[in-house]
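Ligand: zinc ion. Inputs:
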Amino acid sequence: MKCIRHATAILALCVTAVGTAALAGQGDRLLVAADILPVHSLVASVAGDGAEVELLRDSRQDPHGHAIRPSEMARLISADLVVYVGAALEPELAARLSDEPERALPLTDVPGTRLRVSEGGAVDPHAWLAPGNARRWTEAIAAALSRKAPDAAREFARNAEAAQAAIREAEAEADRVLEPVRGLRLATGHDFLGYYAESFGLTIADTLAPADDAPPSLLAAARVAAEVRAGRIDCLVVEPGGTARLPAPLRTLPTARIVEVDVVGVTLDPGPSLYPRLLRDIAGRLRRCAPH
Ligand SMILES: [Zn+2]
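Predicted complex:
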């Protein structure tokens, strides 16, 4: 039935999408797609047994404007609800869902979401890294799921409360772990850690690239390398595998000055507990920046 609403989509994709849903035996069960693992985790924790939640993206990486692949399109078409970070991270997804507001929940549009503007003046899309946003979003997710499955509304609201409690617990623990990191001056690869830093009182003194994941300039790399050598920056924080891809001026820095931090949970098991674990995992990795 959903193919009718997507008259412009290629017919083959419609057939695939309907086929997949039928094979999976969804029946009347609500089917929800989430763009990245932290969002998938929040949706799964609120949905409980009340919905099937799947990851929209094939890749678990930070998606930053990546094109939607045919396999992802099939999931996009078959979902009753698509929960995603927002237009700043996923402009193509936002454009495709723009004429179907009842089927989309862009989280950065949820009232009460705290948005950060990055150095270049654009909205920093990494808004899931503010735990306050994640807690607020669980309520918005519960409301959106309840509109689709009103019978389960009480269950969704209860689950959202439990999810908020789990997030608060992880925040308190991360706060303790990060104690020795406060007062340090950090630099980051692309500007991906601003929300987390603001939430936990950390100082990002410099960044190699803007929040849209553009490649770092050699000029910025040379500047940050000099700042680290002069002791004005304590630690360079990059994404998983980022150490091997650093521009030349940074490759000779002492390895103790560089930590890899996974902000999308690529190294964690997917599911309801991923989001609270992500908050703790980031804290544990940043702790390595502190003198032993
Ligand atoms: Zn990013």
